[in-house]
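Support request, please re-run this one:
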Amino acid sequence: MKINIDIDDKHAETTITIQANEWSQELDDIVSLIKKRKPQRLFGMLEDQTVLLNPEEIDFIYAENRKVFAVVNEKRLEIKMKLYEAEEALIIHDFMRFSKSVIGNINQIQRFELAFNGNLCVFFHSGNKEYITRKYVADIKEKLEMGGRG
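Re-run finished. Output below.
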């Protein structure tokens, strides 16, 4: 893939042109990524305080008992979003689905271990761990091979 960027005062607005010989999954992903540009930060609740969260510091986000929590180091902060909303907002920060109730930051992954049931246990740089169900393992492996920092 070749990328050309032309920055000039003559352009009234930003325009993106993609040239290809056929539609592909890669193009679909690029268009989705461009459309899903969301705010860079989330707000989390810790006791009675609202905390500004930097997506790069979040290990994973999970849903439990109709609430959604972000895990940053040893802290678990409630966020006032649905899990799918967080997933859409954080896709540009390399968050991916780990299971039905968890999305994770692949850039915070330190290592994997195969669990007895075929799932992968993910260990984060912070020491936290979470499981990736078999359904999502191939997608995450592909993302890491394509340049996720991991």
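The radius of gyration is 18 Å. The chain is about 20% helix and 35% strand.
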